[in-house]
Design goal:
The chain is α/β, with parallel strands linked by helices and about 350 residues long. It has helices spanning about 10-25, 45-50, 70-85, 100-110, 130-140, 150-155, 170-185, 205-210, 210-225, 235-240, 245-250, 265-270, 280-285, 305-310, 320-335, 350-360, and strands at about 5-10, 30-35, 60, 90-95, 115, 145, 165, 200, 230, 255-260, 275-280, 295-300, 315. The strands form 2 sheets. A 7-stranded parallel sheet has the order 3-2-1-4-5-6-7, sandwiched between helices. Helix 5 (about 130-140) links the parallel strand 5 (about 115) and strand 6 (about 145). The chain is globular. Bound molecules: uridine-diphosphate-N-acetylglucosamine and uridine-5'-diphosphate.
Length: about 350
Protein backbone atom coordinates (compact mmCIF):
# COMPACT_ATOMS: atom_id res chain seq x y z
CA UNK A 1 0.00 0.00 0.00
CA UNK A 2 1.35 3.45 -0.89
CA UNK A 3 1.94 5.73 2.11
CA UNK A 4 0.10 8.90 3.10
CA UNK A 5 2.50 11.83 3.45
CA UNK A 6 1.66 14.13 6.38
CA UNK A 7 3.32 17.55 6.06
CA UNK A 8 3.96 20.14 8.80
CA UNK A 9 6.23 23.17 8.49
CA UNK A 10 5.28 25.49 11.36
CA UNK A 11 4.18 25.37 15.01
CA UNK A 12 0.40 25.31 14.40
CA UNK A 13 0.68 22.65 11.69
CA UNK A 14 2.49 20.26 14.06
CA UNK A 15 -0.21 20.82 16.70
CA UNK A 16 -3.15 20.38 14.30
CA UNK A 17 -1.63 17.40 12.47
CA UNK A 18 -0.85 15.57 15.74
CA UNK A 19 -4.37 14.08 16.15
CA UNK A 20 -4.28 12.93 12.50
CA UNK A 21 -0.84 11.32 12.90
CA UNK A 22 -2.12 9.55 16.01
CA UNK A 23 -5.34 8.34 14.34
CA UNK A 24 -3.41 7.19 11.25
CA UNK A 25 -1.01 5.18 13.41
CA UNK A 26 -3.98 3.06 14.56
CA UNK A 27 -4.78 2.03 10.97
CA UNK A 28 -2.98 -0.20 8.50
CA UNK A 29 -2.31 2.77 6.22
CA UNK A 30 1.43 3.49 6.14
CA UNK A 31 2.33 7.13 6.72
CA UNK A 32 5.39 9.32 6.32
CA UNK A 33 5.75 12.43 8.52
CA UNK A 34 7.63 15.33 6.90
CA UNK A 35 8.72 18.45 8.79
CA UNK A 36 9.60 20.95 6.11
CA UNK A 37 11.61 23.30 8.30
CA UNK A 38 9.81 26.65 7.89
CA UNK A 39 10.01 26.91 11.69
CA UNK A 40 13.34 25.64 12.93
CA UNK A 41 14.12 26.86 16.48
CA UNK A 42 13.73 24.18 19.16
CA UNK A 43 10.87 26.11 20.75
CA UNK A 44 9.01 26.57 17.44
CA UNK A 45 9.41 22.99 16.15
CA UNK A 46 10.98 20.06 18.07
CA UNK A 47 9.42 21.22 21.37
CA UNK A 48 5.96 20.48 19.89
CA UNK A 49 6.96 17.07 18.54
CA UNK A 50 8.03 16.19 22.10
CA UNK A 51 5.03 17.82 23.85
CA UNK A 52 2.56 16.05 21.58
CA UNK A 53 4.49 12.77 21.83
CA UNK A 54 4.79 12.45 18.08
CA UNK A 55 7.24 10.13 16.33
CA UNK A 56 10.37 11.87 15.04
CA UNK A 57 9.74 13.17 11.50
CA UNK A 58 10.80 10.67 8.84
CA UNK A 59 12.21 13.60 6.86
CA UNK A 60 13.16 17.12 7.96
CA UNK A 61 14.33 19.87 5.61
CA UNK A 62 16.76 22.63 6.46
CA UNK A 63 15.54 25.81 4.79
CA UNK A 64 17.95 28.71 4.37
CA UNK A 65 15.85 31.17 2.38
CA UNK A 66 15.28 34.67 3.67
CA UNK A 67 12.35 35.83 1.51
CA UNK A 68 8.85 34.27 1.49
CA UNK A 69 9.17 33.41 -2.22
CA UNK A 70 12.53 31.71 -1.82
CA UNK A 71 11.27 29.91 1.31
CA UNK A 72 8.29 28.57 -0.66
CA UNK A 73 10.51 27.55 -3.60
CA UNK A 74 13.07 25.80 -1.38
CA UNK A 75 10.39 23.78 0.42
CA UNK A 76 8.83 22.93 -2.96
CA UNK A 77 12.15 21.65 -4.34
CA UNK A 78 12.81 19.55 -1.24
CA UNK A 79 9.27 18.13 -1.40
CA UNK A 80 9.58 17.43 -5.12
CA UNK A 81 12.64 15.21 -4.58
CA UNK A 82 11.01 13.45 -1.65
CA UNK A 83 7.75 12.78 -3.51
CA UNK A 84 9.70 11.29 -6.44
CA UNK A 85 11.27 8.84 -3.99
CA UNK A 86 8.20 7.99 -1.87
CA UNK A 87 5.41 7.96 -4.49
CA UNK A 88 2.64 8.47 -1.89
CA UNK A 89 -1.07 7.89 -2.40
CA UNK A 90 -1.88 11.39 -1.09
CA UNK A 91 -0.14 14.41 0.43
CA UNK A 92 -1.92 15.87 3.47
CA UNK A 93 -1.34 19.55 4.27
CA UNK A 94 -2.94 21.62 7.04
CA UNK A 95 -3.76 25.32 7.11
CA UNK A 96 -2.40 28.27 5.17
CA UNK A 97 1.34 28.73 5.59
CA UNK A 98 4.02 28.93 2.88
CA UNK A 99 4.87 25.30 3.72
CA UNK A 100 1.30 24.29 2.86
CA UNK A 101 1.33 26.00 -0.53
CA UNK A 102 4.83 24.70 -1.33
CA UNK A 103 4.01 21.07 -0.45
CA UNK A 104 0.69 21.26 -2.31
CA UNK A 105 2.32 22.66 -5.46
CA UNK A 106 5.03 19.97 -5.32
CA UNK A 107 2.34 17.27 -5.10
CA UNK A 108 0.33 18.89 -7.89
CA UNK A 109 3.37 18.90 -10.21
CA UNK A 110 3.84 15.18 -9.58
CA UNK A 111 0.13 14.49 -10.13
CA UNK A 112 -0.30 13.22 -6.56
CA UNK A 113 -3.66 13.95 -4.88
CA UNK A 114 -3.67 16.61 -2.17
CA UNK A 115 -5.79 16.52 0.98
CA UNK A 116 -6.28 19.97 2.54
CA UNK A 117 -7.04 19.85 6.25
CA UNK A 118 -8.77 23.08 7.42
CA UNK A 119 -9.97 23.91 3.90
CA UNK A 120 -12.30 26.77 3.06
CA UNK A 121 -11.34 29.45 5.60
CA UNK A 122 -11.57 32.97 4.18
CA UNK A 123 -10.71 36.34 5.74
CA UNK A 124 -11.22 38.19 2.43
CA UNK A 125 -8.17 40.25 3.49
CA UNK A 126 -5.82 40.13 0.53
CA UNK A 127 -2.97 41.76 2.50
CA UNK A 128 -2.51 38.39 4.21
CA UNK A 129 -0.14 35.86 2.59
CA UNK A 130 -2.21 33.18 4.36
CA UNK A 131 -5.36 34.16 2.43
CA UNK A 132 -3.55 33.55 -0.89
CA UNK A 133 -1.98 30.31 0.35
CA UNK A 134 -5.29 28.84 1.48
CA UNK A 135 -7.20 29.84 -1.66
CA UNK A 136 -4.52 28.47 -3.97
CA UNK A 137 -4.23 25.21 -2.00
CA UNK A 138 -8.00 24.70 -1.93
CA UNK A 139 -8.17 24.96 -5.72
CA UNK A 140 -5.56 22.24 -6.37
CA UNK A 141 -6.80 19.85 -3.65
CA UNK A 142 -8.75 16.69 -4.42
CA UNK A 143 -9.92 16.16 -0.80
CA UNK A 144 -11.06 19.23 1.12
CA UNK A 145 -11.57 18.73 4.86
CA UNK A 146 -13.73 21.71 5.82
CA UNK A 147 -13.92 22.36 9.57
CA UNK A 148 -17.31 24.10 9.56
CA UNK A 149 -20.44 24.66 7.43
CA UNK A 150 -19.20 28.18 6.72
CA UNK A 151 -15.89 26.86 5.36
CA UNK A 152 -17.81 24.35 3.23
CA UNK A 153 -20.04 27.13 1.89
CA UNK A 154 -16.97 29.19 0.94
CA UNK A 155 -15.62 26.25 -1.04
CA UNK A 156 -18.93 25.60 -2.79
CA UNK A 157 -19.20 29.29 -3.70
CA UNK A 158 -15.75 29.17 -5.31
CA UNK A 159 -16.59 26.00 -7.25
CA UNK A 160 -13.54 24.07 -6.09
CA UNK A 161 -12.92 20.89 -8.06
CA UNK A 162 -12.20 18.54 -5.14
CA UNK A 163 -14.60 16.64 -2.88
CA UNK A 164 -15.65 18.50 0.27
CA UNK A 165 -16.01 16.73 3.62
CA UNK A 166 -17.25 18.36 6.84
CA UNK A 167 -14.98 17.23 9.68
CA UNK A 168 -14.54 19.88 12.40
CA UNK A 169 -11.14 21.33 13.24
CA UNK A 170 -8.38 19.14 14.66
CA UNK A 171 -7.38 22.06 16.94
CA UNK A 172 -10.29 21.00 19.17
CA UNK A 173 -9.18 17.34 19.09
CA UNK A 174 -5.69 18.44 20.17
CA UNK A 175 -7.00 20.48 23.13
CA UNK A 176 -9.25 17.63 24.31
CA UNK A 177 -6.41 15.10 24.00
CA UNK A 178 -3.75 17.25 25.70
CA UNK A 179 -5.40 19.42 28.36
CA UNK A 180 -5.54 16.58 30.95
CA UNK A 181 -1.84 15.86 30.27
CA UNK A 182 -1.02 19.59 30.52
CA UNK A 183 -2.80 19.79 33.88
CA UNK A 184 -0.54 17.06 35.22
CA UNK A 185 2.75 18.10 33.62
CA UNK A 186 2.87 21.88 33.23
CA UNK A 187 4.46 24.03 35.94
CA UNK A 188 4.04 27.31 34.06
CA UNK A 189 1.72 28.88 36.65
CA UNK A 190 4.62 28.88 39.14
CA UNK A 191 6.30 31.46 36.88
CA UNK A 192 3.31 33.79 36.66
CA UNK A 193 3.47 36.56 39.29
CA UNK A 194 -0.12 37.74 38.64
CA UNK A 195 -3.44 36.48 40.08
CA UNK A 196 -5.45 37.71 37.11
CA UNK A 197 -3.92 38.29 33.69
CA UNK A 198 -4.52 38.76 29.99
CA UNK A 199 -2.76 36.25 27.73
CA UNK A 200 -1.41 38.06 24.64
CA UNK A 201 0.17 36.85 21.40
CA UNK A 202 0.93 38.74 18.19
CA UNK A 203 2.92 37.67 15.16
CA UNK A 204 0.85 38.32 12.03
CA UNK A 205 3.05 39.92 9.32
CA UNK A 206 0.53 42.68 8.49
CA UNK A 207 0.64 43.67 12.19
CA UNK A 208 4.21 43.31 13.44
CA UNK A 209 5.93 44.28 10.17
CA UNK A 210 4.15 47.65 10.46
CA UNK A 211 5.83 50.01 12.96
CA UNK A 212 2.71 52.02 13.67
CA UNK A 213 0.84 48.83 14.64
CA UNK A 214 3.78 47.79 16.85
CA UNK A 215 3.65 51.22 18.53
CA UNK A 216 -0.09 50.86 19.05
CA UNK A 217 0.39 47.43 20.70
CA UNK A 218 3.15 48.89 22.92
CA UNK A 219 0.77 51.54 24.18
CA UNK A 220 -1.99 48.99 24.76
CA UNK A 221 0.41 46.89 26.85
CA UNK A 222 1.59 49.91 28.86
CA UNK A 223 -1.99 51.01 29.66
CA UNK A 224 -3.65 47.61 30.06
CA UNK A 225 -6.25 47.47 32.88
CA UNK A 226 -4.79 44.13 34.04
CA UNK A 227 -1.33 42.52 33.81
CA UNK A 228 -0.27 40.82 30.60
CA UNK A 229 1.52 37.54 29.98
CA UNK A 230 3.08 37.62 26.54
CA UNK A 231 4.88 34.58 25.02
CA UNK A 232 6.62 36.31 22.13
CA UNK A 233 6.91 34.92 18.60
CA UNK A 234 10.44 35.22 17.10
CA UNK A 235 9.18 37.36 14.22
CA UNK A 236 7.80 39.92 16.69
CA UNK A 237 10.96 39.93 18.81
CA UNK A 238 13.02 40.55 15.67
CA UNK A 239 10.81 43.45 14.57
CA UNK A 240 10.84 45.03 18.06
CA UNK A 241 14.62 44.74 18.15
CA UNK A 242 15.02 46.19 14.63
CA UNK A 243 12.91 49.17 15.70
CA UNK A 244 14.71 49.57 19.05
CA UNK A 245 11.48 48.84 20.93
CA UNK A 246 12.26 45.52 22.59
CA UNK A 247 13.96 46.95 25.71
CA UNK A 248 11.04 49.35 26.18
CA UNK A 249 8.55 46.47 25.92
CA UNK A 250 10.58 44.37 28.37
CA UNK A 251 10.71 47.25 30.85
CA UNK A 252 6.91 47.64 30.99
CA UNK A 253 5.63 47.02 34.48
CA UNK A 254 2.94 44.34 34.63
CA UNK A 255 3.96 42.82 31.30
CA UNK A 256 5.69 39.43 31.52
CA UNK A 257 7.43 38.60 28.27
CA UNK A 258 8.17 34.89 27.81
CA UNK A 259 9.83 32.94 25.01
CA UNK A 260 7.55 30.92 22.69
CA UNK A 261 6.06 28.32 25.02
CA UNK A 262 5.42 24.64 24.61
CA UNK A 263 1.87 23.49 23.87
CA UNK A 264 1.18 22.11 27.36
CA UNK A 265 2.27 25.35 29.07
CA UNK A 266 0.30 27.41 26.59
CA UNK A 267 -2.86 25.37 27.19
CA UNK A 268 -2.53 26.02 30.94
CA UNK A 269 -2.13 29.76 30.38
CA UNK A 270 -5.24 29.79 28.17
CA UNK A 271 -7.15 27.89 30.82
CA UNK A 272 -6.12 30.25 33.63
CA UNK A 273 -6.23 33.67 31.98
CA UNK A 274 -9.07 36.15 32.25
CA UNK A 275 -8.99 37.19 28.60
CA UNK A 276 -6.97 36.48 25.43
CA UNK A 277 -5.81 39.16 23.03
CA UNK A 278 -4.31 37.76 19.86
CA UNK A 279 -3.88 37.90 16.11
CA UNK A 280 -3.39 34.12 15.95
CA UNK A 281 -5.74 31.91 13.98
CA UNK A 282 -5.43 28.72 15.99
CA UNK A 283 -5.86 30.44 19.34
CA UNK A 284 -9.28 31.78 18.23
CA UNK A 285 -10.31 28.14 17.78
CA UNK A 286 -8.73 26.78 20.96
CA UNK A 287 -10.42 29.48 23.06
CA UNK A 288 -13.77 27.83 22.22
CA UNK A 289 -12.69 24.31 23.24
CA UNK A 290 -14.21 22.56 26.26
CA UNK A 291 -11.90 23.12 29.22
CA UNK A 292 -10.70 26.49 27.86
CA UNK A 293 -13.79 28.63 26.92
CA UNK A 294 -12.24 32.10 27.09
CA UNK A 295 -13.20 35.44 25.54
CA UNK A 296 -10.84 36.61 22.78
CA UNK A 297 -10.14 40.07 21.40
CA UNK A 298 -8.84 39.62 17.87
CA UNK A 299 -6.31 42.41 17.21
CA UNK A 300 -6.77 42.34 13.45
CA UNK A 301 -9.02 43.97 10.87
CA UNK A 302 -10.66 40.68 9.88
CA UNK A 303 -10.97 37.04 10.85
CA UNK A 304 -11.34 33.82 8.89
CA UNK A 305 -12.73 32.30 12.11
CA UNK A 306 -16.07 34.17 12.02
CA UNK A 307 -17.67 31.19 13.80
CA UNK A 308 -15.87 32.20 17.02
CA UNK A 309 -17.36 35.70 16.72
CA UNK A 310 -20.88 34.41 16.01
CA UNK A 311 -20.74 32.00 18.97
CA UNK A 312 -19.84 34.92 21.28
CA UNK A 313 -16.23 33.96 22.08
CA UNK A 314 -14.35 36.42 19.87
CA UNK A 315 -14.59 40.07 18.95
CA UNK A 316 -12.57 41.64 16.11
CA UNK A 317 -11.27 44.91 17.58
CA UNK A 318 -8.77 46.09 14.95
CA UNK A 319 -5.27 47.38 15.68
CA UNK A 320 -5.98 50.88 16.94
CA UNK A 321 -4.88 51.34 20.57
CA UNK A 322 -8.00 53.25 21.65
CA UNK A 323 -10.34 50.56 20.36
CA UNK A 324 -8.28 47.71 21.82
CA UNK A 325 -8.05 49.40 25.24
CA UNK A 326 -11.77 50.17 25.29
CA UNK A 327 -12.57 46.54 24.42
CA UNK A 328 -10.16 45.32 27.13
CA UNK A 329 -11.75 47.57 29.78
CA UNK A 330 -15.19 46.26 28.83
CA UNK A 331 -14.11 42.60 28.72
CA UNK A 332 -12.37 42.80 32.09
CA UNK A 333 -15.42 44.36 33.77
CA UNK A 334 -18.11 42.20 32.16
CA UNK A 335 -18.52 38.46 32.83
CA UNK A 336 -19.98 36.89 29.70
CA UNK A 337 -21.72 33.54 29.58
CA UNK A 338 -19.95 31.54 26.87
CA UNK A 339 -21.44 28.50 25.13
CA UNK A 340 -20.32 25.01 26.15
CA UNK A 341 -20.01 23.63 22.63
CA UNK A 342 -17.27 24.76 20.26
CA UNK A 343 -18.33 25.94 16.80
CA UNK A 344 -15.21 24.16 15.48
CA UNK A 345 -16.31 20.62 16.28
CA UNK A 346 -16.43 18.04 19.03
CA UNK A 347 -12.93 16.60 18.95
CA UNK A 348 -13.54 13.95 16.28
CA UNK A 349 -12.13 15.83 13.27
CA UNK A 350 -8.98 13.69 12.97
CA UNK A 351 -10.92 10.41 13.19
CA UNK A 352 -13.37 11.62 10.52
CA UNK A 353 -10.45 12.65 8.28
CA UNK A 354 -8.69 9.32 8.71
CA UNK A 355 -11.95 7.40 8.08
CA UNK A 356 -12.23 9.21 4.73
CA UNK A 357 -8.62 8.29 3.94
CA UNK A 358 -9.39 4.65 4.82
CA UNK A 359 -12.40 4.61 2.48
CA UNK A 360 -10.32 5.97 -0.37
CA UNK A 361 -6.81 4.60 0.11
CA UNK A 362 -6.80 1.48 2.29
C1 LIG B 1 4.24 31.65 9.74
C2 LIG B 1 3.01 31.64 8.82
C3 LIG B 1 1.81 32.13 9.60
C4 LIG B 1 1.60 31.34 10.87
C5 LIG B 1 2.88 31.34 11.69
C6 LIG B 1 2.72 30.43 12.87
C7 LIG B 1 3.38 32.09 6.44
C8 LIG B 1 3.23 33.09 5.36
N1 LIG B 1 3.19 32.54 7.69
O1 LIG B 1 4.48 33.00 10.10
O2 LIG B 1 0.64 31.96 8.79
O3 LIG B 1 0.58 31.93 11.61
O4 LIG B 1 3.97 30.86 10.89
O5 LIG B 1 3.54 30.80 13.93
O6 LIG B 1 3.65 30.95 6.18
N2 LIG B 1 11.78 32.72 13.02
C9 LIG B 1 12.73 32.28 13.92
N3 LIG B 1 12.70 30.98 14.31
C10 LIG B 1 11.80 30.08 13.83
C11 LIG B 1 10.85 30.52 12.91
C12 LIG B 1 10.85 31.84 12.52
O7 LIG B 1 13.57 33.06 14.37
O8 LIG B 1 11.85 28.91 14.24
C13 LIG B 1 11.79 34.14 12.61
C14 LIG B 1 12.71 34.39 11.45
O9 LIG B 1 13.26 35.63 11.59
C15 LIG B 1 11.76 34.43 10.27
C16 LIG B 1 10.51 35.06 10.92
O10 LIG B 1 10.49 34.54 12.24
O11 LIG B 1 12.26 35.17 9.23
C17 LIG B 1 9.22 34.73 10.24
O12 LIG B 1 9.07 33.32 10.12
P1 LIG B 1 8.13 32.70 8.98
O13 LIG B 1 8.05 31.24 9.16
O14 LIG B 1 8.55 33.18 7.63
O15 LIG B 1 6.74 33.36 9.26
P2 LIG B 1 5.90 33.44 10.62
O16 LIG B 1 5.77 34.86 11.01
O17 LIG B 1 6.43 32.48 11.62
N1 LIG C 1 1.10 28.22 20.92
C1 LIG C 1 2.00 27.61 21.78
N2 LIG C 1 2.91 28.40 22.43
C2 LIG C 1 2.95 29.75 22.28
C3 LIG C 1 2.01 30.35 21.41
C4 LIG C 1 1.10 29.56 20.73
O1 LIG C 1 1.98 26.39 21.96
O2 LIG C 1 3.79 30.41 22.90
C5 LIG C 1 0.17 27.35 20.16
C6 LIG C 1 -1.31 27.67 20.33
O3 LIG C 1 -1.86 26.91 21.38
C7 LIG C 1 -1.86 27.25 18.97
C8 LIG C 1 -0.74 27.52 18.01
O4 LIG C 1 0.44 27.58 18.79
O5 LIG C 1 -2.12 25.85 18.95
C9 LIG C 1 -0.98 28.81 17.29
O6 LIG C 1 0.14 29.14 16.56
P1 LIG C 1 0.36 30.58 15.95
O7 LIG C 1 -0.43 31.57 16.69
O8 LIG C 1 1.82 30.77 15.85
O9 LIG C 1 -0.16 30.40 14.45
P2 LIG C 1 -1.58 30.57 13.74
O10 LIG C 1 -2.55 29.68 14.41
O11 LIG C 1 -1.94 32.01 13.81
O12 LIG C 1 -1.29 30.19 12.34
Amino acid sequence: MKPVVVVAGTRPEIIKMAPIIRALSKTKIPSVFVHCGQHYDYNMAQQFIENLELPAPDYSFKIEASSPGAQTAEIMMNMDQLLEKIEPSIVLVEGDTNSVLAAALAANKRVIPIGHVEAGLRSFDLRMPEEHNRRLTDHISEYLFAPTEKAKANLLKENVWGKIYLTGNTAIDAVIQHLPIAEKKSAIMEKIPFQTFVLATAHRAENVDNVSVLESFMEVFSKSPIPIVYPMHPRTKKRLQENKMFAQMEALRDVLILPPLGYLDFLILMKNCKLIITDSGGIQEEATAPGIRKPVLVIRLSTERQEAVEAGFAKVVGTDKKNILAAMEEAVKKEVELPYASPFGDGTAAQKTVDILKENFA
